[in-house]
Each structure stands twice: as C-alpha cells, then as structure tokens.
Design brief:
Elements: E1 9-16, H1 23-34, E2 38-45, E3 62-65, H2 88-108, E4 112-116, H3 120-131, E5 135-139, H4 142-146, H5 152-165, E6 168-170, H6 174-181, E7 189-190
Parallel strand pairs: 1-2, 1-4, 2-3, 4-5, 5-6, 6-7
Length: 191
C-alpha cells in the first residue's frame, strides 16, 4: 500500500485576527486550506468590534486568542533586541504568549509558524518556534521595514535578530527585499 504524505499543518501567529483591513491574510489562510493544509491561527489579541469579511465564514481554521495571558518568565539576555522599547509587563506577556503558542503547536503537531508584520506577532512566533524546536517565517510589510518605532539603531537590531532567526521572509517588492537583505543576508527574502 503506497504511503501518503501527512497533511501539512500550518499555524499563523497574528496580532489581531480577523481584521477587516487585513483581508489579504484571510485570503492567504483560505488558499492554504484550499491546497489541503490544516491551518490554525494564534491571535495575540482579540480583534476590534468592526465589520467582518463575508469569506470569514469559509475559514475552517480554529483561532486561539492569547490576550488574557500574563507571565513572569525571564527573557534570554541575548534577546534584548527583540524587546526594545517594551515594558517589563509587555515583555512578560509576549513570553507567556510564545510559551502558550509553543505548547499548543506541539499538541497540534505543527512544526512551522508564520507571522504577518514584523512586530509582536513575529517576536512571539520566533520565541515559540525556538521553544518547540521548530521554525518560523514572516511576511514583512512596509511599516515593519521602513518605519522607526523605537530608534533607528534599536529598530535595525530588532530587524537583524528577526531576520537571522527566520527560515524565510516574504515581502511584496524587490525594493523591500533589498532593504531587508541590508540588515542580514540570511534568511532568504522573497518578494
């Protein structure tokens, strides 16, 4: 009897899901499901009370909300760039969310996480992937690439840390990809 490959299991880590303004993420999740993948979504926060896209009803993926977690875990001293500009409470919450993602992903037999936006969602995906001995990737959007959040130096260090740890990074243009490669030649940045 021929062996059949196991159904791909993909987990997305998002800051808030669903968002009406982020229909592209919904479309991406639906495309994964249409291709036969099993998808799970971890949302760091609950979405705002706003209209929902009609196609949301087609999504089979379960969404786990992680906004109620509080934590007292200590960050690895080597991860200071990831927490630049964060308060102790924000850092602890991100660590608790990453731990919850890692634990749930292990139970779901997910080995790869994907995040959208190079912000807290990517930090949580990076930390969770490390804890579960898996991999992560992310889609970098304009704000993640060009905007100054803390300071040019702190933002560059944060981008380098995330790029260096990612299996791959996706962005929408060659210009964005070139700019990201200026921070770290690894991982592959796909446009």
């Amino acid at each position: 009897m021929p062996q059949t490959p196991e159904t791909p299991k993909i987990a997305y880590v998002l800051k808030r899901f669903p968002r009406f303004s982020e229909t592209f993420i919904l479309n991406e999740l639906l495309a994964h499901e249409a291709a036969g993948a099993e998808v799970h979504v971890f949302s760091l926060r609950r979405p705002p009370d706003e209209p929902r896209h009609a196609r949301l009803a087609d999504l089979k993926a379960q969404v786990t909300y992680l906004d109620g977690l509080k934590g007292a875990q200590c960050a690895d001293p080597g991860d200071s760039a990831l927490f630049s500009g964060k308060t102790d409470a924000q850092r602890a919450r991100l660590l608790a969310q990453a731990n919850a993602i890692a634990e749930a992903a292990r139970g779901l037999r997910v080995t790869h996480l994907h995040a959208h936006f190079g912000s807290d969602a990517t930090t949580a995906a990076l930390l969770a992937a490390r804890k579960m001995c898996g991999t992560f990737s992310y889609t970098a959007h304009a704000r993640d690439i060009w905007h100054t959040c803390v300071s040019p130096q702190a933002d560059a260090a944060m981008r380098r840390a995330k790029l260096a740890a990612a299996a791959f990074v996706v962005t929408v243009s060659d210009s964005n990809a070139r700019h990201l490669r200026s921070f770290a030649p690894k991982p592959p940045v796909v446009s």
